[in-house]
Amino acid sequence: MKLITIIPARLGSGRLKSKPLLSFGGKTMIRRTVERVLEGDIGPIAVASDSELVLDQIRDLDKVIPVMTSDEHTCGTERVLEAFQKLQKEFGQFDVIVNVQGDEPFISPDLIKAIPGELSKRLERAQFWTTVTEIDEAEKEDRNVAKVVLDLHQNALIFTRDNIQCAYKHTSVYLYTPEFLEIFCGLRPSPLEKAYSLEQMRALDNGYRLNCIPLPYDSISINTVEDLAKAGITDFTFYDN
Asked: What is the pLDDT of residues 32-57, one digit of tens each?
C-alpha cells in the first residue's frame, strides 16, 4: 500500500493569529508538527500552504515537499486535494492520502507508525478513515475537542463539540482514497458541518461511511491560547508581520 502524508497549513486563522508560525521552545508550530510526522516514517510528506512564510519553515527538511496552494480554500481537505493533484503529476498514483492537521505539534510518531497496519484491516469498510482515542474526563466539556460516537463496525455515527455519552475523542488524522477525496471536495458544506464547524460531518450528512481507528495515542491540538495553556506552554511568540 502506497501512502503519502499531506499537512495543510493555512497562514490565516480565525482563532489564533498566524497559527503555523506561532513559536515556542525555539520552533514554530508547523516545524514541530512536521518533525513529529517525520519520526513516524510512513512515506513521503508534503506541506500544503497558502504562504511562502510557512513553507520556508520546512524547506531544509529532508523528505519533506513544500507545495504552494490557493488562499481561497474553505477547508483543509480542499487544500490537501490541490496539493495531491500537483504531487501526483510528479510522483504518480498513491493508494491512500494521510492528512495530518498542521496544528498537531504533539502528535505521537507511534500513531503515525500504526496507520499502515490498522488501515490494511479496514480497507473494505470505507474510503475515508480517521483516528480516535479514549476521551479524558476533563475534556468532555471542552468545545475545542471534537467527539465522535461509533457504531458496532467502528463507523462514525455523529461528530459533535458537545459532551455526549459513549464518545471517543477525535485525534485529527484523516485518511482518504484519492477517489473519495475528490468526491468529498465536490460536496457542498452540509447543515451539521456548519452547525458544529466540523467538516467531517459533510461526509456523514451525505451518507458516506467514515471508519474510525481507535488508537491509544492522545495529543493536544493547538487552536486557541487556552490550548497552549492546557499543553503547559506559557512562553510563546506570535509571528509579527
From this structure: 999 999 999 998 999 999 999 999 99
**Residue 235 belongs to some domain of the structure:** no
Residue 207 has pLDDT above 70, yes or no: yes
| 142 pLDDT above the threshold of 70 | yes
- Enclosing domain of residue 112: 3-230
Q: State the Cα angle at 229 between 25 and 71, rounded to 5°.
A: 75
With 0.90 as the threshold, say if the pTM is over it: yes
Q: What is the CATH number of the domain that holds 124?
A: 3.90.550.10
Angle at 98 between CA 96 and CA 102, to 5 degrees: 160
Q: Please give the full DSSP string across 189-201, using - where no structure is assigned.
A: PPHHHHHHT-TTH
**Which residue type, as a one-letter code, is found at position 140?**
K
Joined together, the cell numbers standing for residue 157 give 455515527
Domains contained in the chain, number: 1
User: Would residue 238 count as lying in a domain?
Assistant: no
By the 10 Å C-beta count (0-12 exposed, 13-18 middle, 19+ buried), 222 is classed as: buried
pLDDT score, position 141 = 94
Residues 17, 50: Cα–Cα separation, whole Å: 15
Q: Which of 37-46, 75-84, 181-190, 219-228 has the lowest mean pLDDT?
A: 219-228
Helix, strand or coil, per DSSP, at residue 226: helix
| Grid coordinates given for 158 | 455523529
Q: CA 92 to CA 89: how far, in whole Å?
A: 6
Q: Which residues contact 38 (CB under 8 A, 6 or more apart)?
A: 45, 61, 63, 64
pLDDT at 217 over 70: yes
Does the residue 67 lie in any domain?
yes
